[in-house]
Specification:
Layout (H helix, E strand, L loop, with lengths): L1 H23 L22 E3 L14 H5 L5 E7 L11 E9 L8 H5 L5 E3 L14 E2 L1 H4 L12
Antiparallel strand pairs: 1-4, 2-3, 3-5
Length: 154
Amino acid sequence: MVGEVVGTVRALVKGFSVTFRNMLGKTTTEAYPDAPATLMPRYRGIHVLHRDDGGLEKCVGCFLCSAACPANCIYIEAAENTDAQRISAGERYAKVYNIDYSRCIFCGYCVEACPTDAITHGHGFELATYDINSLVYRKERLLEPGPAKKTAHV
């Protein structure tokens, strides 16, 4: 009986010592949204579709990312490239590329499955919305900006 009381008091003192040590220590506070959030380098955020050095899309519409996705949140429609309109370096390109972030679990399987490194996780994290339909990100929103068009100066 006395041993149980001593053990209980010892456990309480040990637990409270952790609490008091953290209470009296320096607090860590993020200043978000006034300052940018601090993210780790390997953070898995909103996906980014990349372009190659020539400005063409890297995605060749192979559907491997969609097949690897356990949440079934990636929808792709492929189309053929033509000589007149070249979108990607391959024979095909992703005409439609949608990711439904209401289903995405940010597992990274799509990134690992992509043979052309067309899709990666970015550092975007602001997904909060009141409308679930706005969580479907289309290709235009995921695609990184292309090279600036050269204009003739007069």
